[in-house]
Amino acid sequence: MYRYDQYDHLIVRERIAQYRDQVRRRLADELTEEEFLPLRLQNGLYMQRHAYMLRIAVPYGLLSTAQMRMFAHIARKYDRGYGHFTTRQNIQFNWIELEQTPDILADLASVEMHAIQTSGNCIRNTTTDEFAGVAADEIVDARPYAEIIRQWSTFHPEFIALPRKFKIAINGAVEDRAAIAVHDIGLTAVRNEAGEVGFKFMVGGGLGRTPILGSVINDFVPWQHLLTYTEAIMRVYNQFGRRDNKYKARIKILVKAVGAEEFARMVEAEFADLKDGPETLTREEVERVAQWFNPKPYLTLPNIDPRADHADNKAFANWLQRNVKPHKVPGYASVVLSLKKTGVPPGDATAEQIDFVADLADKYSFNELRVTHEQNLVLADVEQAKLFEVWQQAKARGLATPNIGLLTDMISCPGGDYCSLANAKSIPIAAAIAERFDNLDFQHDIGDIELNISGCINACGHHHVGHIGVLGVDKDGSEWYQVSIGGAQGNESAIGKIIGPSFSAPQMPEVVGRLLEVYVKNRVDGERFIDVAQRLGVAPFKEYVYATPIPAGELVGEDEYA
Amino acid sequence: MPNFELHSHKQIIKHRDVVDDDWSVLKLVDDAAPESVEVPAGKIIVPLKVWLAQREQLAARAARRELGLWFASDELAHTVKDDLDRFAVVAVDFPKFSDGRGYSIAYNLRKRLGYQGELRAIGDVLRDQLFQMLRCGFNAYATRQDRSIHDALKGLTVFSETYQASVDNALPLFRRHARGALPEHSDVGAGI
What we know:
The structure holds two protein chains of two kinds. Chain A has helices at residues 6-27, 33-41, 65-78, 101-109, 143-153, 226-240, 251-258, 260-274, 283-290, 314-323, 351-364, 387-396, 427-436, 440-446, 508-522, 529-536, 539-547, 558-561, and strands at 45-47, 52-56, 62-64, 82-85, 91-96, 127-128, 168-171, 185-191, 197-203, 215-222, 324-326, 332-337, 348-350, 368-371, 377-383, 411-412, 451-454, 468-475, 478-485, 497-498, 503-504. By secondary structure, chain A is α+β, with helices and mostly antiparallel strands. Chain A has four domains: 6-109, Sulfite Reductase Hemoprotein, domain 2, CATH 3.90.480.20; 134-290, Sulfite Reductase Hemoprotein, domain 1 (2-Layer Sandwich), CATH 3.30.413.10; 308-396, Sulfite Reductase Hemoprotein, domain 2, CATH 3.90.480; 411-561, 2-Layer Sandwich (Sulfite Reductase Hemoprotein, domain 1). In chain A, the strands form four sheets. In chain A, strands 16, 17, 18, 19, 20 and 21 form a six-stranded mixed β-sheet that branches. Chain A has a five-stranded antiparallel β-sheet with strand order 1-2-5-4-13. A five-stranded antiparallel β-sheet of chain A has the order 3-14-15-12-11. In chain A, helix 13 packs across helix 15 (508-522). Chain A is globular and about 60 Å long. Helix content of chain B is 21%, strand content 21%. Chain B contains six helices and nine strands. A nine-stranded mixed β-sheet of chain B has the order 1-4-5-6-7-8-9-2-3. In chain B, strand 2 and strand 3 form a beta hairpin. Chains A and B meet through helix 1, helix 2, helix 6 and helix 9 of A and helix 3, helix 4 and helix 6 of B.
């Protein structure tokens, strides 16, 4: 993976000095809270319901084991012994003291990490496919380009006070695993007939209160122009994006207002002047960055059937089926470690688990890990012959729940338990649903399904693109949940449709149960839930869910996780 | 009641020094019509709208180098492209820290329109914005007067290296330096 050179180190160190002084001035009242707010936000520090939350950047979700262990250290020394992996492939700590944040940054810098631009109205962490570099269907490894964008966007002087936050994702594979259609800029790395790399630019996707899928404004921007073309988009947005209403300030609203064609024309006009300018990428620079992502020193191994010696082990078979993914090198596989064990908030990991996963990666996966945008962890390069060992060890630590892509592999934001924006709690809803459908045979029968929960309209839990989406809403001061179906991410991205009036928290497991019953009754030939939902539309689901009153049962786990 | 206000700063930052200043920024009161304002004598920085409405009357003052122009954050640099060199100072207003349009106005004035003169940041200008202002082409800063201007000066020297090209540095880092030396071979930045 990429290693800092002296300039990366210098910039991060100078950043810490700047931030340390900002904190000092705040504590000495030389800065008002209002003045300090944008400064701390640009450094990932939010004031939450109970304490400060610090969000640390995991560029494109890739981590060394030394970095992973630093998270465990931070969890123990500065927090309450655990961290929360996010849908943007970052990690956040929820119980942080302002006074200690400069020291946390210094600790992070020692392992080449930072919290720069993890919030605020600026360009955020660029995300990509968690299987980049190893996926069997990969066309271009997107990580070098994500790193190039990271450097270019870090402290970009002109785009530091945008109308709103700005998120870029890159996919370089046949299957989009980076959810590019719901990003401000969604890039697809492709090759033209001559084999040259270029980028398809999609602009103006997003979730939040106005969910919109991005529009393609250019089918092929040669790699040399990646930064200049992006700069053109940013300048158009910085000048013309709305600033009068923060709910209308994302680039999607601008693209929708002027139309994708006109927006593309504005970008082209801006780009005409930047094209071939100094920010044009050189082959040398791309190669300098790309060499850090060269293939690992793989052994020459045959593909094997990892089940062979364990034919009667159903639990292992389930895990292989759900949590192990194909690798482009024979004899290897990628392993997804589930952070979705029933009874644990989605994406949470304890310091002990974090250390343990680092140990696993050191032993089995070239000292590297990835964070997925579904809030799980990945060991990308495991020898197939070692899968049984890895499974046994992961299972002993509660990290081998064979539920990847299944009902209990939910995406959930931290919700009203932590977040001051949330209208409603999300973790207890996730917990109650997980508890009700904990039976793995049932989950495997239901098969691929994405259930996404957001505690408010900001949609951090990506509810719009969940096959089943749950949104917490506030009605007269109490918490209610609106349910949508038919959303999807990836190549077939779609925004879900609301099925009807919202539900109380205790009703939610039954609502999900009824939706699944409609699916089971109507599925044909191995159709997934999403296929049935998109084929039949909302009507039959709506009819059945609302046909009889839903008892307000016990909400499991609320007190436990509140 | 005059339909404008004058705002002046005893001192501003120019380049990297604190210097006395004798300019006043004219702001229209409420929705005063730009053509109705009687621009007072002295060195006045007028709103873009007033210049456009009174170009003929103000031309002589501009020729005497007694006229400046300021852009509101929702105005575009190229609106006055042929007139730029007539002003002794061009200013860009930052109505609040979170409004970053002024950075693009400055970039366009410098890079697109080739403006070479004084480019002054006015409005909600504080220490922690100065570095990016400098990078986007500002060379003068009327910092908020309830804060120490000498303290604000420190904002200009936060970083000694930057990744991107901008107005202050026409080349990005990868074209300025051979990159890739590992930190163990260099002690740049150690001990900061």
